[in-house]
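Running this now, will post back.
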Amino acid sequence: MEKIVEYIAKKGGFARMKDLREEGFQTRDIAMLVKEGTIEKVKSGVYKIADYGFFEDKNVSLLTVCNAIPNAVICLISALDYHGLTLFNPSEIYYAIPNSAKPKKIIYPPVNPYYFRDRFYKAGIEHIKTKYGEIRIYNKEKTVCDMFRYRNKLGEDIAYEGLKNYLKLKGADLLKLKEYAEICQVKTIMMPLVKVLVA
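Update: finished.
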């Protein structure tokens, strides 16, 4: 069973049941490792090592979602938090997937999926490399604009906070922000606020 743990470690701490079976590992041994808490089931068919140094990485929950759902992109409040644009600490991971996707349920962490049309889903994805895998997340500008797109559902205050904090950044790019405001169809709502805040 040590070989199973070694194999998952080599894969970055995550592995799919399909790959484990192809390597010749037995289902009963995998189940035993789950029972003893050495590995954890993230969702049906996906496992991770329980304590593979993840305590060092505050983004383990984001990594878990991105590993468990191949087309998931961290978005909205979770992306705002990752980029340091809000003081709000979300209790669940917000992620976007194409509106035609049907993701399997994740056991842990708590998640809040949003189904985006292609226009909103494809724009502004960043790929953040970590030693434990890749985080797919919307860039700062797209995140701020998405927050305005969902301001009625998630709160105008947090959307405004995100915008205000973005505009304080040394690398704030108003042209890029305007570009994503057009993509997200929030230009007429958001850009007048930008003018007031940068005046």
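The first strand starts at residue 14 and ends at 16. More later if anyone needs it.
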